[in-house]
Amino acid sequence: MLGRLAAQRFREIRQAFCQIPQASRSFSTALNYHLDSPDNNPDLPWEFTDANKEKVKEIISHYPSNYKQSAVIPLLDLAQQQHGGWLPVSAMNAVAKIIEVAPIRVYEVATFYSMFNRTKVGKYHLLVCGTTPCMIRGSREIEDALLEHLGVKRNEVTKDGLFSVGEMECMGSCVNAPMITVADYSDGSEGYTYNYYEDVTPKRVVEIVEALRRGEKPPVMQRDQHVESVIKVKICYLILMNFIFQRGTQNPKRINSGPEGGNTTLLSEPKPPPCRDLDAC
């Protein structure tokens, strides 16, 4: 009796969610269930491109043959890059087949990590850091500026399909707060980039959006001649899984996380500590 009542209640809740327009369910990238739709159902064929099939072999080669399932995260990431920034259920099924696990094992990963999008995003997916340091430094104003300029709500896609805006927790550069990330899916998996823009302002994020709209690649780090002449600049390129990302400040008076205008302390080699005469102890 209780089982029948629970099943009936579940069907009612599922039906209620199915009747909600997709735009109103824009938060569904964070939900842990799937609802079939014309563009996202297990009957749609999906497979990696020939070029990405070679990448799949290379990724799997990093793991012992009896631990192929350990490749699930980089394979899902590659599938998301190929599919324009989001993961349909048929792509997850394809990954499950490759690593020889039950599809539910892949669904568990895709629904747990916020880096995987399960609804459509723009070709340029903008993520605003919403953790406390960035919030104190104005991340709410940054997000409001983006949403107002693009005319969308959080996780909605612009009508031209170019942009979407989301929120991410802690991008790991609190000293350069506030900051945003731009996931660039405009060139597929071959040209995919994931860049961090730090020390942004409402004006600067709008400039970044318009540069992307023109097909430009906004510089990750801003520099002025004075600072460049004082401090040697080094931009680090970090390899993460199978793509490159860059990060840097948008404040032209700073280098990485240094103070405006350059260092005022620690300008020379540190002095070594005085030696102790251990024999005298």
Could you characterize what this model shows?
- The structure is a single chain.
- By secondary structure, the chain is an alpha/beta fold.
- 34% of the residues lie in helices and 12% in strands.
- It has 9 helices and 7 strands, in the order H-H-H-H-H-E-H-H-E-E-E-H-H-E-E-E.
- The protein has helices spanning 2-18, 50-60, 72-82, 89-99, 103-112, 132-136, 139-150, 202-213, 225-230, and strands at residues 124-129, 163-168, 179-184, 193-198, 238-240, 243-245, 247-249.
- The strands form 2 sheets. Strands 2-1-3-4-7 form a 5-stranded mixed beta sheet, with helices on one face.
- A hairpin with a 2-residue loop joins strand 5 and strand 6.
- Helix 2 packs antiparallel against helix 3 (72-82), helix 3 packs antiparallel against helix 4 (89-99) and helix 4 (89-99) packs across helix 5 (103-112).
- The chain is globular and about 75 Å long.
- The termini are far apart.
- Residues 251-281 are annotated as: Disordered.
- Its cofactor is [2Fe-2S] cluster.
- [2Fe-2S] cluster binds at residues 129, 134, 170, 174.
- InterPro entries: NuoE-like, NuoE_dom, NuoE_N, Thioredoxin-like_sf.
- This is NADH dehydrogenase [ubiquinone] flavo 2, mitochondrial-like.
